Amino acid sequence: MSRHRLPLLSLLACALLGCVESKYESLAPLDAPLDADHYASHVQPYVALACASLDCHGDGGRPLRLYSELGLRLHHGLRPRAQGDTVEAEPLVAEELRRNVAAFRSLEPAHHAGDERLVLSKPLSRKAGGAAHVGGDLFATSDAPGHRCLQGWLSAESAGPDACAEALEGLGALAPGAASDAGP
After folding, report:
1. Integer Cα distance of 94 and 122 in angstroms
2. What is residue 87's three-state secondary structure?
3. Predicted confidence (pLDDT) per residue in 131-167, tens digit
4. How many other C-beta atoms lie within 10 A of the C-beta of residue 73?
5. Under DSSP, is residue 168 helix (H, G, I), strand (E, B) or coil?
6. Disulfide: which of 36, 96, 131, 164 matches 42 by Cβ 3.0-4.6 Å?
7. What are the tens digits of pLDDT across the range 24-50?
């Protein structure tokens, strides 16, 4: 085959494939702006406790790099400080929140929607159709509050805030300063 025919055939194949309906065309892409205010108010408090510890997504080397008050910080001066028996943590700055939202967006190809989204399928149990997650199964089913919290935010559904509050309540024993009901 000549050198000139190969590019022509490639161009023709691309043009023909453009006429074929993709299975992803019916899926809602993650192309609408993600609501940063909703993220800061409802999603970040959950993500900070469930995902953003320094040994997980608060590690600067992770693809989904997340900042949190007690974890990864943009500047050294923002890191938490021990004050006796307590830890003083500075709230996230706008740039840290912006980077968290951008981190979620960067993992989502435009053709993924629903539970196909990586940030929803990775922590979902494999029995429920999820993918392998080094941190283990965070969501037993797609009806788990944390899953619904992220899904609600990613799809701009109004159910998100309630699910986030429920998910955060479920992690209450992990919150800084919260008393644990678990035994020793």
Report:
1. 27
2. strand
3. 888 888 999 999 999 999 998 898 887 666 889 999 9
4. 19
5. helix
6. 164
7. 233 334 455 788 999 999 999 999 999
Candidates 84, 85, 89; CA nearest to 49 is 89
Q: What one-letter code names the amino acid at 59?
A: D
How many CB atoms sit inside 10 A of residue 105's CB?
14
Q: State the Cα angle at 125 between 123 and 129, rounded to 5°.
A: 105
Spatial separation of the C-alpha atoms in residues 144 and 42, rounded to whole Å: 16
Which residues neighbour 11 within 8 Å (Cβ) at sequence distance 6 or greater? Answer: none
Nearest CA-CA partner of 138 in 10, 50, 15, 13: 50
Nearest to 57 by CA among 112, 119, 146: 119
Closest CA to 158 of 149, 168, 146: 149
What single-letter amino acid sits at 11?
L
Residue recorded with tokens 């000139």: 4
Query: Rounded to two decimals, what is the model's pTM?
Result: 0.72
Mark residue 156 as left, alpha or beta (left: phi above 0; alpha: psi -120 to 50; beta: remaining).
left
Nearest to 93 by CA among 154, 40, 22: 40
